[in-house]
Automatic annotation (TrEMBL):
Parts of the chain that traverse the membrane: 125-147
Location of the region described as Disordered in the Swiss-Prot/TrEMBL record: 75-99
Domain Peptidase M28, chain residue ranges per copy: 430-594
Name of the protein in question: N-acetylated alpha-linked acidic dipeptidase like 2
Keyword Membrane: yes
Key words, A-Z: Membrane, Transmembrane, Transmembrane helix
Family recorded in the similarity comment: Belongs to the peptidase M28 family. M28B subfamily.
Length: 794
């Protein structure tokens, strides 16, 4: 027994000396690190441990398990070559053999059970696993309830589902619009900024997350402290524009109505001259008058209607007139209206801030001195005053017939016209709100209404339009809160300064012109949506006519009023002007009018009458017409904002061009030829490239984006550079329902008759020819790009 123990000790001593040399050398090299990093040394230590374990397991070595082993400490080592820190029990071979090296008499209570550190590691791992499992289960539960409360965003197909449109539109209710309307009318007499701020608060309260005020300092032409007057020199009688005598008590009169019966941006001063009746101021009227009298510095008695006011005034200015009395013939008004004794306001501003023509009125902009936009002294008057001037009794309406007003051929009337107004810079505010799209956030559908603070002037249509757009925002945001969003961005706008020449919309669009040229897809107008209650009157760009017609079948509150509403492309009033004529953006507008309006002379809506708060509720007491307009507007907006392929019709543009060239006046072979080529190309484009609109399998993202870019810019080719005042630069829009030819060509023909020169008509023909050819080239280029792209993919 002693011999065996001696041999074993000898053998262990040799092995420990070898291990000591290796461990000691490694510790010196590694700065006395408690671990060996060399792979060879680790392997050697493992082999030594394995051999030692096997030897200790042999029979007869059980008595080496001494209790005194637990009293061993590495820190008590007397070896001069080692300077080791105390080493705690370790499962690694290195730790165990370092302990053996410290004391030759050390004997371990070695057993086959796992070391204590392994047991600790196991419990730690178990603890971590249990914690992770609990957190995982907790996360699943929280996620489940979060998804129930906040539903996941809808897919593109779900966003485009007509059922989603129906859910949104059913939230638009007449009673809500009526309440919003009445709330808006609680702001009388406040300036533009205050009214805009309250609209902003309303929109924000509905949940529109990105709404802001955009202010511009602009030049406004406001009425003076006293009313303008018209004096008959023969009798010495003085009249206000309404027809009431100047010396009559005016306490019972609407003082603001008197002050705001004026033409903004008219020339100012006093003019005494002969009154000349020129009826509607057509070229035929001017030719007839100039043949019998010299019109220089005389005052024209002019009826509003048939042509744009700015166009007629430009003819009168060129002819040499000095002043104009402007009125509406009672025979041109619907019988239901009672406006004979009311004067009105007009603006002679073609658009935007007159002091910054063509650029935005931002801080630092150069301000031009343009206090008057015409040399004419222009004054609107009531039909009652017009009758007094032509010496007719006031009751000229007889049962079923109406006698148009006309100045007697005999006798000469001299009048004195006194006009005073004040030009000053004021701040006007636009309210702009964004509902960002998810798929094409850089493509905008703009919906525009306007607000007015002219002391009830211009009627209450501003409150009607603002109430409708606010109700639509309210319905949309209810759906947004449930996870829905449009594919394209919808921009809501309430414009300021509309009565003075669409100033707010012009300034904002000029400010953002580069962005809007690239991003705006369509403009939906809510200008004066309920001006009658007899018939629905939809107006749309040629590319949107089909969409406007289809939308009427989906949203009709009173079905009997919906069928037979023809969609036309005619000039309209309001803030769509800049978007149609400077950006070439497709536009649409729905409104209710009186049934006789389509038979009356056009452009009567240029007059802003002082209609008071009861008028709108008389026209639509239940606000069902407002609800219809809101739903029609909402329907087309949602379709344009969400359809993968824009719902624009290229072929309708080509057909409109061909229809506008019919007639003997413009029978030019070159025009007809290029228009035919445009139709052929449009037909090919419509049949071949519009397949993605009907077949989802054809909707490769790059193809859809390219196709939409082409459709978005269809109308930009039809913007001509030079047009007479008051006419649209976008030649796709006709003057009115009764004319089918291009308005720029019709007016050029009139100028040709008036000046006995064909220079104007030749210039107009060249403009139209270049526009049609440009559109045909644009279509063809789009087709070529598609063919190249598809060939490359194959």
């Amino acid at each position: 027994m002693g011999e065996n123990e001696s041999s074993v000790r000898s053998l262990c001593q040799q092995d420990k000396n070898m291990a000591y040399q290796k461990v000691n050398a490694d510790q010196r090299a590694q700065g006395h690190s408690p671990y060996l990093d060399n792979d060879e040394l680790q392997a050697t230590a493992l082999e030594l441990e394995w051999d030692m374990e096997k030897e200790l397991e042999e029979p007869g070595f059980d008595h080496f398990r001494l209790d005194g082993a637990v009293q061993h400490h590495l820190g008590n080592s007397q070896s001069p070559d080692l300077d080791l820190e105390p080493i705690q029990p370790s499962s690694s071979p290195k730790g165990r053999f370092q302990r053996l090296q410290e004391d030759p008499d050390y004997v371990s209570h070695y057993t086959r059970q796992a070391p204590k550190s392994n047991r600790c590691s196991f419990f730690q791992i178990l603890k971590v696993f249990c914690t992770a499992l609990i957190l995982f289960i907790f996360g699943i539960v929280m996620g489940y309830y979060a998804l129930k409360k906040c539903p996941s965003p809808l897919t593109s197909q779900e966003r485009n589902n007509p059922h989603v449109y129906h859910e949104i539109l059913k939230e638009i209710k007449a009673e809500n619009i009526k309440q919003i309307y009445r709330d808006l009318l609680q702001f009388p007499g406040e300036d533009d900024v205050d009214v805009a701020m309250k609209i902003l608060v309303q929109w924000s309260s509905q949940g529109l997350e990105d709404a802001r005020l955009v202010n511009y300092s602009v030049l406004l032409d406001l009425p003076g402290s006293s009313s303008n007057t018209v004096t008959l020199k023969n009798s010495g009688e003085c009249f206000y524009p309404s027809g009431q005598q100047c010396n009559r008590e005016t306490k019972t009169l609407h003082n603001q109505d008197l002050l705001y019966s004026y033409a903004a941006y008219s020339a100012k001063g006093t003019l005494e001259a002969e009154l000349v009746d020129i009826q509607y101021g057509t070229t035929e009227d001017l030719i007839r008058i100039q043949a019998i009298t010299n019109v220089t510095k005389k005052i024209a008695l002019l009826k509003l209607g048939q042509s744009p006011l700015l166009y007629k005034l430009s003819l009168l200015e060129d002819a040499g007139f000095g002043g104009v009395l402007l009125y509406i013939d009672p025979c041109d008004l619907p019988k239901t209206t009672d406006l004979d004794d009311k004067a009105f306001m007009v603006s002679l501003n073609s658009g935007g801030d007159p002091s910054t023509p063509g650029y935005a009125s931002i801080d630092g902009s150069y301000r031009q001195n343009r206090l008057n936009l015409t040399t004419l002294l222009v004054q609107p008057i009531s039909a009652v005053l017009a009758k007094k001037l032509v010496s007719l009794p006031e009751d000229t309406v007889q049962k079923d017939s109406c006698i148009p007003l006309q100045l007697p051929a005999t006798g000469k009337k001299v009048i004195s016209l006194n006009i005073q107004s004040v030009s000053t810079y004021k701040t006007i505010s636009n309210v702009i709100g964004y509902l960002k799209g998810t798929v094409f956030p850089d493509r905008y559908i703009i919906i525009g209404s306007h607000h007015n603070s002219l002391n009830t002037y211009g009627g209450q249509e501003w409150a009607s339009s603002t109430a409708i757009i606010t109700a639509f925002i309210q319905a949309l945001m209810l759906k947004v809160k449930r996870g829905w969003r449009p594919d394209r961005t919808i921009v809501f706008c309430s414009w300021g300064g509309t009565s003075f020449g669409n100033i707010g919309s012009y300034e904002w669009a000029e400010d953002l012109k580069r962005v809007l040229q690239r991003n705006v897809v369509a403009y939906i107008s809510l200008h004066n949506p309920v001006r009658g209650n007899s018939t629905l009157h939809p107006v749309a760009s040629p590319s949107l006519q089909q969409l406007a017609a289809e939308s009427q079948s989906f949203n009709c509150v009173e079905k009997t009023r919906c069928p037979g509403s023809n969609v036309s492309s005619v000039q309209i009033q309001g803030d769509s002007d800049y978007f149609i004529n400077h950006l070439g953006v497709p536009a649409m507008q729905f409104s209710y009018e009186d049934i006789k309006s389509s038979e009356n002379p056009s452009f009567l809506s240029e007059a802003l009458f002082p209609v008071h708060t009861t008028k709108t509720e008389e026209l639509d007491p239940t606000f069902s017409l407002h609800e219809t307009i809101a739903k029609l507007t909402g329907q087309v907006t949602l379709q344009i904002a969400n359809e993968p392929v824009l719902p624009f019709n290229a072929l309708d543009i080509a057909l409109e061009v061909q229809n506008s060239l019919k007639g003997e006046e413009v029978d030019i072979p070159q025009l007809l030829t290029v228009a035919s080529h445009l139709r052929d190309t449009a037909e090919l484009f419509q049949s071949d490239e519009m397949r993605p609109a009907n077949d989802p399998k054809e909707r490769a993202p790059i193809r859809v984006r390219m196709l939409n870019d082409v459709l978005q810019s269809l109308e930009k080719s039809f913007l001509v550079h030079q047009v007479p005042p008051g006419l649209y630069r976008n030649i796709l829009y006709r003057l009115d329902e009764r004319t089918s030819q291009f308005s720029v060509l019709l007016k050029a023909l009139e100028q040709c008759k008036l000046h006995q020169s064909n220079e104007t008509i030749q210039a107009a023909l060249s403009e139209v020819l270049n526009s049609i050819n440009s559109a045909q080239v644009y279509f063809k280029a789009g087709l070529d790009v598609f063919e190249t792209t598809l060939a490359g993919k194959k």
